[in-house]
């Protein structure tokens, strides 16, 4: 922007200077020519009374006195002779001999012809010759001065424009940094208002926007935390009910599930109170997927489901928190158990390719049937329709994506692409994966 403003001002100044200096240069040239011709004409007219007297000796003396003027002067007498500088009797001279004074352009300069009437023997002609160099003497220096003045004005205007553009760009750069900070969650970022009124208004607006967003997020986090905290009471009652069961195994199994639910509520409270800006997470997806598959394999065995698991032997790091990755896989596997018949096979695969980590969940159920299930709240059954949306938002938060398709068995396929942490600040390339 700074360069564009400077170029705009420079081009405008150049146009103004051209529009002003070109006519001025032509005017200087015309004035110099007119002044020189007028001086030569005055000297020729001053010699006319001496020529009219007819005394050629006096004329010779007068011509010698005017020789220092720099204009060669000649008196052409009616009898064909001349006094002064040699000159031909060209067409202009012959025309002047008819009694008409005139100025004639000739190669190399201009002739000033003054007809002197009333002399003995006819009309005498006084000829003064002005060369082109004499007519335009000093014009080159005047043009050089004008060119230097134009260059100085252009340099000053460019310097002033650059300083002005630098001031504007500095303000706009600060605004861009503020907007970027707000977009990345730095709601405490502020910029001191200043500059032109328009930029000052935008600065004030962005500062107020950051404050409003921070206040809204803080209020919503506290409300979500309060709502989650209210769940602790029914969880406590449920734990007490589980302890009253006569079957110790059944009581232990229900108590374990209550513990899982309580940990989930606790994590939900911590998540809602977590600052908006946080360090990029780094989680071993292999360990999380293996742990959650072991958890769901118990239910799969009860329903006679075959669960195929394909994970690498080493760790795969992803830019997702462990609890968020667990919630994603729980949502996907929960959908399989909820929306496919018992006994239907399912598969979970984890692999690294193309600079990302892919989590794929396949089933042998009825599939999606072309429904737009990625829209929040859309479901194929009597559910909230938030499961896939939670998975999608978690994937996008890691710079990944979510894709729905058809599994090899004809059922549904959900492929989640998670971003991986950069290595020493260098973004991953295709084919890279976490060590």
Radius of gyration: 50 Å
Indicate the structural class: alpha+beta
Shape: rod-shaped
How many β-strand stretches?
A: 12
Could you give a short account of the major beta sheet?
5 strands, antiparallel
Mean pLDDT: 82
Helix content: 40-55%
Read across the widest sheet, the strand sequence of neighbours is: 2-1-5-4-3
What share of the residues does DSSP label as strand, in percent? Answer: 15-25%
Distance between the termini: 43 Å
Q: Which sequence of SSEs, written as H and E, runs from N to C?
A: HHEEHEEEHHHHHEHEEHEEHEE
Which spans of ≥5 residues are poorly predicted at pLDDT below 50?
424-435
- Annotation field: number of helices: 11
Task: List descriptors.
435 residues; 54% helix; alpha+beta; 5-stranded antiparallel β-sheet; 11 helices
Question: What is the gist of this entry?
Answer:
With 435 residues, this protein is of the alpha+beta class. 54% of the residues lie in helices and 16% in strands.
What's the helix and strand layout?
Elements: H1 2-53, H2 56-66, E1 73-76, E2 82-84, H3 91-96, E3 102-106, E4 109-119, E5 122-131, H4 132-135, H5 139-183, H6 197-230, H7 232-243, H8 248-272, E6 283-284, H9 285-302, E7 307-310, E8 317-318, H10 322-339, E9 346-353, E10 356-363, H11 387-397, E11 401-406, E12 412-419
Protein model, in words:
It is a single chain. By secondary structure, this protein is an alpha+beta fold. The protein has helices at residues 2-53, 56-66, 91-96, 132-135, 139-183, 197-230, 232-243, 248-272, 285-302, 322-339, 387-397, and strands at 73-76, 82-84, 102-106, 109-119, 122-131, 283-284, 307-310, 317-318, 346-353, 356-363, 401-406, 412-419. A hairpin with a 5-residue loop joins strand 1 (73-76) and strand 2. The radius of gyration is 50 Å and the shape is rod-shaped. It starts with a helix and ends in a 16-residue tail after the last strand. The relative contact order is 0.06.
